[in-house]
Automatic annotation (TrEMBL):
This is Phosphotransferase. It comes from Lysobacter arseniciresistens ZS79. Keywords: Transferase. Coiled coil: none annotated. It comes from the Bacteria.
Length: 152
């Protein structure tokens, strides 16, 4: 894994397009060329941007998984001296949700994501999100990367 210290929310926000409250991850716990492990604490926040009807539903864990991909891509690009290309989520596959909601969970959410396929045009990751060792969600997500304009 890269680095000795966790990566904080400010550094995460510098790596991904999701800003403010829509930056869902609070900390990168560990990462390497194929995997990333992150932690989130704000799923209990009544002002969470994905809440509706006073609840944060488990289906939103798919967004947490997709953002884990974005953070990992940003870290890989930064390690290579560049910036990650912006991506568009195009598919979710094999998603299994084990709960209806997550705003009532007292502890942190932890995501482990693994890069399955990567090219200059697209990426696919598998993700698993847990709470206190309990599996909440798992699945695969695919992103099509957008070409970056050349900077003169």
């Amino acid at each position: 894994m890269h680095g000795d210290a966790p990566i904080d929310r400010a550094r995460i926000a510098a790596l991904i397009p999701h800003q403010g409250d829509m930056c869902l991850w609070d900390e990168v716990l560990a990462w390497d060329a194929q995997t990333i492990r992150l932690r989130a604490m704000r799923h209990r926040d009544p002002a969470h941007p994905l809440r509706s009807g006073g609840r944060l539903r488990a289906v939103h864990l798919c967004e947490y998984g997709a953002q884990a991909m974005a953070v990992h891509g940003g870290l890989l690009a930064a390690a290579g001296g560049g910036c990650a290309a912006p991506g568009v989520l195009v598919a979710l596959r094999g998603v299994q949700l084990r709960r209806a909601r997550i705003d009532d969970l007292p502890g942190d959410l932890v995501c482990e994501a693994r890069q399955l396929v990567a090219s200059a045009a697209s990426q696919q990751y598998g993700f698993r999100i847990t709470h206190a060792g309990e599996l909440l969600a798992e699945g695969r997500a695919a992103v099509v990367l957008q070409p970056q304009a050349d900077v003169p």
